[in-house]
């Protein structure tokens, strides 16, 4: 392979090139996809793994975090029961009424998924690996759009090595009555690398909820890279939710990239409690006027966990609104990172953009790094950002203890109240209760 662009310095960086070299011939896709993969690995070869001297990765040294790269995980015969699913993602999420889709051990599992039910509901859906053999125009456009973010190493590596995933098209005017629940699992006892790509296209006036949950069988040595692209045509709406509760040794890299058309609405929400290192990147670009997005979430971390949330919202057209609110609860030596950037183009007058990140530090050794950014080229806009960090209010704690609550219960109540503000973005009570149950489990106060 002719990609000697960068002089690689770490074993993991060279491992990634070797991984592609050994797997390329067996990866799914036609000649055009093969060419796209080769271009993407060349992009990676020019960049290497990001580190602290790369501004966007200043607080998350991926090069330093990866010692080596395990082989691609692919095992079609992995046995997964409903009880396994409940163990992996939790009882509350398994109980959600939804169309279930399962990706386990790097393979899409039709036998565990409700593909036919989704098709009967009017949705065009297929496993990504199958679609890559002859991509329809809408999927090719989605892949090309993601590939246009050429400086993003996570996307470049995903494009080069993607194996499983789903491709979904919501036809014009369709309102899906139940959420699509996409469950990502590792495999019992099998460490490895997983590269998943999902593409969701909502045509004019279509609407749906997509939940992505990431569960574990407690496997060590999983390195996950998942990219989900969402294209929203005019007057469409997608609610995009995520639960990440993988094993504490997992490396989790995730990208959501959404293009939002006129009068469309994209709401994104995620909760992270797992992984040794998690990086959630959300890119939103407004392509049509009078559109809106609300991006929010919560991170609950302890031990030496590291969780990075990085957002870029591009206002390219007038009269669009964006809201961002993230809450972090950090204990022990956990580190939380929030980077939020709002870019307002010169023609994007009447833009309304606001972002806020808030951290609650439960120990002296927990750390929160925040980097809010506004890049504004228009003059008639309303934009703002803020960031706070602090500890539990001792006066409130005293107030609750004075009324008979044990200290541990009083602290849990205050933490739940702090995180709960982010959960208010969820307007579906059943889904909201499922996320609340996750927070309660983390706090050791299971919901009734």
Map the helices and strands.
Elements: H1 11-23, H2 31-47, H3 62-65, H4 82-89, H5 91-94, E1 99-104, E2 107-108, H6 115-120, E3 124-127, H7 128-131, H8 137-147, H9 153-161, E4 166-170, E5 180-185, E6 192-202, E7 207-215, E8 222-232, E9 237-244, E10 251-260, E11 265-272, E12 277-286, E13 292-301, E14 306-315, E15 321-330, E16 335-344, E17 352-361, E18 367-376, E19 382-390, H10 394-402, H11 407-423, H12 429-443
Parallel strand pairs: 1-5, 4-6, 5-7, 6-8, 7-9, 8-10, 9-11, 10-12, 11-13, 12-14, 13-15, 14-16, 15-17, 16-18, 17-19
Antiparallel strand pairs: 1-2, 3-4
Helix pairs in contact: 2-9, 10-11, 11-12
Overview of the molecule:
The protein is an alpha/beta fold and 448 residues long. Helices cover 26% and strands 35% of the residues. It has twelve helices and 19 strands. The chain has helices spanning 11-23, 31-47, 62-65, 82-89, 91-94, 115-120, 128-131, 137-147, 153-161, 394-402, 407-423, 429-443, and strands spanning 99-104, 107-108, 124-127, 166-170, 180-185, 192-202, 207-215, 222-232, 237-244, 251-260, 265-272, 277-286, 292-301, 306-315, 321-330, 335-344, 352-361, 367-376, 382-390. The strands form two sheets. A ten-stranded mixed beta sheet has the order 2-1-5-7-9-11-13-15-17-19. Strands 3-4-6-8-10-12-14-16-18 form a nine-stranded mixed beta sheet. Helix 2 (31-47) packs antiparallel against helix 9 (153-161), helix 10 crosses helix 11 and helix 11 runs antiparallel to helix 12 (429-443). The chain is globular and about 70 Å long. The termini are far apart. The mean pLDDT is 93.
